[in-house]
Amino acid sequence: MNGPTPSLADKVRHARLEAGLTQAQLAGGEVDPVTIHRIESGRVKPTRRVLSHIAKRVGKPIRHFIEDGGPDEAEIDCALLRGRIRRAAGDLDAAQRMFEAAEQLAIAATDASRTALARLEAAAARLQRGWTASHETDLAAAQAEAARFGHLQAIAYSEYAHAIALHAHGDRGRARKGLFAALAGVGELSPGLRAQCLAELIAIAVEQGEESAELEAQMNSAAASLDPRHAAEMWEAQAIEAESSGNLSGAVDAGQRALMIRETLAMKKHEAAARYHIGQAARNHGRTDEALAELGRAQALAGEAGDPLTEAQSLVAMAEVYTAAGRITEACGVLEQARGAFSRVEQAAAAGPAAPGLRGPAAQAVTPDGLAGARDGGVRSPVPALRVLHAEYPAAD
User: Fold this and answer.
1) Where in the chain is the domain with CATH 1.10.260.40?
2) How confident is the model at residue 202 (pLDDT cuts 50, 70, 90)?
3) What's the pLDDT at 61?
């Protein structure tokens, strides 16, 4: 291999010392420490992969080491990802700035594909913030450029952003066409974007007094595939596959993602149980509004965490609070939701004692009067409570 310039060797050594790492720590199990020593002594020239690893370990962009190399692909991708994260959080102003920064990085790297992608993302964010004829023209040009490089997913999102802007501008007809174009482009690859498009189509249908049942069914299907429990299972499976193929770095990454989701779900489950008990305490002290608010939060959290028992408990308790306050119509509506929760409890019970919905701090039975109780430290079958619910609150004809 050709020897590197002394400046590169110095830069690697200085960056390592600045980060407080030994040569072995900089190697990080991915590179032979002997290779790091040879790079710092100027005896070998690192490959692009090794230099990218070094840059990541010391927290610097790769162009810190290669003055004429331009931004690294990973740096551009990170800028794009940050923009997408801010966009998902609803901060379109920050998202646009980050996409524009990614575009400048891609231009500096003479990366035509990423330049087109970043330009499209920036144009879509600009238009989504507010429709103007010039923004629409810019988006059309960016879409045509991105299509040359096959950025179909980004084009589909840009169609959605365009439709959102048109809807806000009052042009429902063109907005509807754009949403169907986005759906056609995204296919089944992105259930999140698919659900967003369908939700916007439903809003337009409702505004125009049209039937939306079919759209609602499609949206529910797309939303169901976004269940975080499914995402956790997907990452767990990916971790197993990566480990079996010897890709330990990939296995750790996927496993960490799965763990984060699982810990979030566990936290929601525990919080749901706590909110349920806080709501019951407020109810016992006659604080109706507080009780309903806490029980409503408990029900929502339990639904997210996949804990149908706490969800059912919360709904039954809410119905009783509404009934005591003379708000019978609202009580009936909540009890209809409780039927579905009880059905899920029955399904979990039928699946056996290991069913996820029957474990944890909220694993208490719902008694016929709607109060939670525990017996022998375990879980009583929810089936009798369900039968009482059907008997006392028969379904409306």
Assistant:
1) 6-64
2) very high
3) 79
Closest CA to 214 of 223, 226, 225, 201: 201
- Listing DSSP states for 114-147 in one string gives HHHHHHHHHHHHHHHH---HHHHHHHHHHHHHHH
Q: What's residue 263's pLDDT?
A: 94
How far is the C-alpha of 29 from the C-alpha of 57, rounded, in Å? Answer: 11
| Distance (Å, whole) CA 42 – CA 33 | 14
Q: Helix, strand, or coil here: 66? A: coil
Which amino acid makes up residue 277? Answer: H
Instruction: Determine the Cα–Cα distance for residues 48 and 196; give it in Å rounded to an integer.
Output: 40
What integer is the mean pLDDT of 117-142?
96
The structure's pTM equals 0.61
Q: 199 and 219 in contact (C-beta within 8 Å)?
A: yes
The conformation of residue 375, written as its DSSP 8-state character, comes to B
How far apart (Å, rounded) are the C-alpha atoms in residues 200 and 196? 6
User: What are the backbone dihedrals phi and psi of residue 261, each rounded to the nearest 5 degrees, phi first?
Assistant: -65, -45
Domain(s) labelled CATH 1.25.40.10 in the chain stretch across 268-392
Does pLDDT of 220 surpass 60? yes
Pairwise CA distance, residues 66 & 260, whole Å: 36
Query: What fold is seen in the domain 6-64?
Result: 434 Repressor (Amino-terminal Domain) (1.10.260)
* DSSP states along 154-171: HHHHHHHHHHHHHHHHT-
Outline where the chain has alpha helix (H). 6-19, 23-27, 33-40, 48-58, 73-88, 92-108, 112-129, 133-148, 152-169, 172-186, 191-207, 213-224, 228-244, 248-284, 288-305, 308-324, 328-350, 383-392
Of the pLDDT bands very low, low, confident and very high (cuts 50, 70, 90), residue 159 is very high
**Architecture of the domain spanning 268-392:** Alpha Horseshoe (1.25)
